[in-house]
Each structure stands twice: as C-alpha cells, then as structure tokens.
Amino acid sequence: MEKEIIGWIYEAAEKVKSGLGDALKVDQKNGRTDLVTNVDKEVQDFIVKKIHDYDPKALILGEENGQDDTPIDKGRVFVIDPIDGTLNFVMQQENFCIMIAVYEEGVGQLGFIYDVMRDELLWGGPKVGKVYNNKEELSAPENKSLSEGLIGMNAALYRKDLFHAQEIGQTSMGIRVLGCAGLDFVAILKGTQIGYVSMLSPWDYAAGTIMMEQLGMTVIGENQQPLSFKGREFFIGATQAAMAEIQAISKANH
Ligand code: IPD
Ligand code: CA
Ligand code: CA
Ligand code: CA
User: Where Mg(2+) is bound, by residue (predicted)?
Assistant: First the structure.
C-alpha cells in the first residue's frame, strides 16, 4: 500500500506545481485569511480517485469537498489534507505540504507528509515499523525538555495567550510560527523542534501524529484527552519530557 500512496503523492505534487504556474482561483472560507484554491479541491479529488481505484471500500476524511466529518474508527479510512499551508501556497509558493494518513479500525498505520517544493517526504508508522525521510530511516529524536528546544506555535494561540501559550513559549528556547502544521511535524520528527502547540483539525494532525508516536513522542488533544478526530481542537505534540512541562503550564492556567 505504501508504494501506491507514495506514487499518488508524487503525481499530485506535479499537479500542484503546474497549478502554481496557472492562474489560481482563490476563494475565502471563513474570512479573508482562510483561503481555498482550485488546486486544493482538484488535488483532493485526484487522491480520492486513486484511493477508490485501489480500494473501493475505503472511507475518506478530507478537508475539502464536503468530506470532513467521516469517523475514523471503522474500516480503512484515508485522512487527506491536499494542501496544508494554503496561505503559504498562495502567498509564498513554498512552505506547504501534501498529507495523507491511513487508519484501520481506528488505529493509525501510516502517515505521509510531503514538502512539495523541497522534495522531502516523511513517511512511516506501525505498518512498516519505521519512519523515513525520503529513503533514509529516521531515528528517535533526543528526549529534550521544553527549555532545551524550539517550539512551533499557531500565531493566534500565541497572540491571544490561549492555554498559556506565551508562558510555554517563554519557557522554551524560542517559538517558531511556520503557517503549515505539516512542517511543524517535520521539524519535530527531524529533532529540530521539541514540540508544536496549536488548534488543529484531524487532517492537520493525523499523519504527523502517527509518525511522532512511532518515534516515541506523544500527542494530546483538548482538556488533556486523546485527540477526538472530530472538529478543530487544542493540540499538543512533543517529546515526552517537554510534554509533561507543557501540560503542567497549560493545565495550571485553565
Ligand atoms: C492550516 C495550517 C496552519 C495551521 C492551521 C491549519 P490549511 O492548514 O496548517 O499552519 O495553523 O490550524 O488549519 O488550512 O492551510 O490546510
Ligand atoms: Ca484550509
Ligand atoms: Ca491543514
Ligand atoms: Ca488544507
């Protein structure tokens, strides 16, 4: 299965790159900074067609095209974010990803995050027992504490100081705001960030979560509960050591 998925991702990436060359059709979803383009929708349709040619029974949970409320606990579910970082895609033409995750009976089996313009594919999970960066196997990052590393954050969370985001940031070595959840996961998996604190939907966190857990790191959702896979929620993903500190700070103020 992983070979097929990697093939679809590379094909989808070609569509994304050629879409950048054409006139993009950009629409607003919930306000002027929440954008969707024709490429987001076309890439999701393209991946869904590939999935259904491969496995007609598979279910889809995807950000676009009205496929955003499928439960993940039964059967084989493909979770798709056709372009993660749409605002970067439109404004920067880089720093965006294609993300796919596979769940079977509610268990995450494979995650894929492809940084299209850097040609960097992080993929893996329980189904293959490893995580790769292109062809190279990744080892588990060092279990650094919050004060020893950089932390990724959602800008609004930091600005509004929700869940004591500012204290979390000040305890760390510094915050990073990348505008693309997938790239925060890539940084954590490579060990260049110790965590990520954000407000995310299932397609934002599915692939990254599967790979983080494979490498011994932890994730948690709203109210210190497991991720719900329903709607947008508070998200923490971090090394084990940093997770304990971040939870203590966010809990203390809640
Ligand atoms: C968004 C990006 C952004 C994160 C948002 C996501 P989208 O995804 O990952 O960095 O802060 O929470 O919704 O909408 O560009 O796929
Ligand atoms: Ca979006
Ligand atoms: Ca996203
Ligand atoms: Ca998206």
Answer: 63, 81, 83-84, 204
